[in-house]
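Lab meeting minutes (informal)
Scribe: AK
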Amino acid sequence: MNKEFIDALNMMAAERNLDKEQLLLSFEEALEHAFERNVMPGRRIEVDVDPESGEMEVLEIRKVVAEPNEDEEEREKEILLDDALELDPGVEVGMEMEFPVDPETFTRIAVQTSKQMITQKIREAERTLVYEEYKDRAGEIVTGVVARVDNKRNVFVDLGKGEAIMPPREQIQGERYMVGMRVKVYVASVELGTRGPSILVSRAAGELLTYLMKQEIPEVADGTVELKAVAREAGARSKVAVTSTSPNVDPIGACIGHRGSRIQAVTSELQRERVDIITWDPNPREFIRNALSPAKVGTIDVDAEAMQATVQVPDDQLSLAIGKGGQNVRLAVKLTGYKIDLEASETTSDLDAAMQAAATKMDDPFAAQEGTSRAAFDALFGAGDEEAPADPDAVASREEAARGEEPVGADAEAEAAGDAATEAAFEDAVDPGADAADEETS
């Protein structure tokens, strides 16, 4: 051992973020184990390495006893009091004595064994350090770099001081992970196993959506808008129930932002995942109604003890309430915590639907409209025909006039006289002196 060994040990500790003292202690333990197993079997060995010079001291430790032990293996670790007094007159029973061991007795096999033990100790120290670093960070959002992807589609993310695994079930559907890609992940769990710490991260967890909304929406960050529940199918669609602690703040408007700027900033991190913002309601019936939006549903029967709800859904809204592949009702179940049964109903969902349903029941809407207009016209202009019977001659005269024929009979003469009188009155009004001029001329 020399100073160069200590420098190499320090460099290794710096590169792997290990504690120098802990690393040196692991090295001493490895040497002790190699001595006890390969050089001096059955003996108790202690190794001490100077952290400055690198000099190594190997000592055999023996316990002072009055009588020899019956166990032969334990006898090798002890020394009788009489023999001990010859070496040191001040020793007593129960004390321990140190005997130097020549390091030159360290054989090639012992060196190889110690190397393996040192490597193992270093790995254990690294694993312990990683576990201590991340054991209290479960439930947080961290940023990492994609290190590699195996043939089982497991993504390994470098977190800086440790490596985490993201299995396919925790990935966003349709998202591609390239080596060197920076990603935000949710630390789901940190466990210490026989192979070291196991860090499970996720991009499909609802907590990631919650974190992003806090980052992009100030009202959510300061608590003005509360996120009551989140249901998510990563990469496809999510539902978030929100409420406001201030009567002057619209929770849905605050989350969406001007022209959807805030919610778009959230979805851009989630591969354009659709996020529905709905209003949370303390009444389970109204909360379920909101959760099934955009479908408009009818009567809702709620069994609070069994956490079940039966929802009457109009026929024209049933497919919308179920959603593509049952996605809408599935998210509503996750969001509300209620088991929701949808039942088709013939009732319409709103006034427009009622009008549309009524219109479709008419055989010929255009004919009905024409009949209504004619009835209204007859009511206004044909009422007098029923009170007094029409004169046959007058009717005939009107029909002849409509065909462009001259009226005949007494009515014709009366009508002609009336026309002559009308013409005379009109001429007098236009040229009052015309009649006098005609008389003088005659």
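Next up, CB showed the second protein from the same session:
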Amino acid sequence: MSLANTMSYPRRQSLLSDEGSKWFLSVLAVATVVIIVGNLFIPETSALHVSTYTVTLFGKYLCLALLALAVDVIWGYCGILSLGHGAFFALGGYAMGMYLMRQIGTRGVYGDPVLADFMVFLNWQELPWFWLGFDQFWFAMLMVLIVPGTLAFVFGWLAFRSRVTGVYLSIMTQALTYALLLAFFRNEMGFGGNNGLTDFKEIVGFDLQSNSTRVTLFTLSAAILAFAYLLSRALFQSKFGRVIVSIRDAEARTRFLGYKTENYKLWLFVYSAILAAIAGALYVPQVGAINPGEFAPLNSIEVVVWVAVGGRGTLYGAILGAILVNYAKTRFTALFPEVWLFALGGLFVVTTIFLPKGVVGLLSARFKRNPVESEKTDDQTPAQTGGAA
């Protein structure tokens, strides 16, 4: 008996999806090379030159695409709609920001070799204990993984063990990020309050404002995005991934077959949170600031819109949606700043009604070469469709 029900989620990545993966990775590689060459080797006087601003902008898009991938991992394949992944993104960003602040040293406004400028302004006499170790890059990167991962583990363990699902879980994730927003706004928390962390100078000894550093960060963002995509794809082609998909389609039946579904959901949630945190850590040095606004619930809701527009349950669809929507946001906020949020909401409504499988689903339907073969794919056995058997 098939575990799949009538939900609108994609059941399985077909051969067309394999071709889509090849296209995605190829386009990502070519675009990365073109941008690097256009910036480093083509003179500024040429029309083909890619400015450092453009490099940074696309680096930002790639970080947000990684965040969308993290949400698609948990929503598209496990059916858990998280409205709080912005919290993990921001925590990863703050861990990186704390490292960058420690690198400023005496070059700050107040010239204190240890305390950040906001600490001197607030008359703090010594560095808070939770800032210790952030002068080391390896320690900061470890915290990027451990802090959001631990929070996701504790939250997921409490929620999934209690079998909280559906809209209740979504509301809880949003409440989590809103609570962190309120906490980080407070000056006494020791994270810069409303202004957050900014005025970064260098990363591992390299000037953050230099052209070569910007290109390196962009290249690193592209490489990590490709690696995260391949890792996630391999995960969902494994037995673990097939169980995850069966939980999405029919959790009660999967539990009846002997699987501890709460454990599977927990570890996928932690994995997804870590991906979001890495995205935040890559985002901060390229944008140059991190503040409590990144915890805003609206940011997490926007990520869901990106995934829905691109096509959930496809991985590369979420990436495509993030890049398309954020590019449109960059363009239209400059031209029509008052109506952009209305346009974003309208885009989500139109996508939900007319493109339930997103842009990728529309393209797949248009270029599908053998409809009969597609119908057979939908009628495969649970083992073939990714369900537990």
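CB comment: The beta strands are 197-198, 202-203, 206-207, 289-290.
No objections, moving on.
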